[in-house]
Amino acid sequence: MLQTFSRRWARAELACAAALAAAITALILLNVLTRSVGFALYWVDELAVYAMIWMTLLAASAAVHHKDAVAVTIATDALPQDAARVLSRLVDAVIFALALLTAWFCWRWFLPLEFARAGFDVETFQGATFNFIYSEPTNTLGLRKVWVWSIMWVFAFGLILHSLSNLTTATDRKGTS
Questions:
Q1: Where are the transmembrane segments (predicted)?
Q2: Which of 89, 100, 135, 166 is the most buried (most CB within 10 A)?
Q3: What's the CA angle centered on 147, arms 146 and 152, to 5 degrees?
């Protein structure tokens, strides 16, 4: 069941990443067009950067599911098959630990309990914690950056899900049984 959910989540991540890649292309073309006619839209640059960040994190999480990330395999290629499997499991465990740390950092950064204790009042929260995550605006879009940074929660969830799925499934480094 965990592997099925991981596979479906990775499929959704890749679909979103592909849509974001198309959006980035459209935004860059829009930027080129508007600049060439002398009517630059400065918010387009910022939106393209944020879309690229989201795309990268979604694709990176899906790569963990597929065990398709860039890797240096000189050590595992030289090892006997059993030792290579052990090393692959060790890598899966390190990725799982990194995923848990990412979620912990998100918890420390967003401080959701303290925000709830402040009654979801941004000014009360800021006064109590000196954390301005919920009010800091983007440079040109005028959105609160918390919406941009929320991808970190999605990334942490996907990373935990995929690395836990990898740990509980007997696979080699290419993701085959």
A1: 12-33, 39-60, 90-110, 146-164
A2: 166
A3: 80
Tokens for 96, please give them.
Answer: 């799982």
In a domain, 177, yes or no: no
Token digits of residue 132: 């301005």
- For 141-162, b/e burial (b = at least 16 CB within 10 A) is beebbbebbebbbbbbbbbbbb
Q: Radius of gyration (Cα) for the chain, nearest Å? A: 20
pTM above the 0.85 mark? yes
Residue with tokens 């991808």: 151
176 assigned to some structural domain:
no
Q: Are 140 and 121 in contact (CB under 8 A)?
A: no
Q: Is residue 127 part of a domain?
A: yes
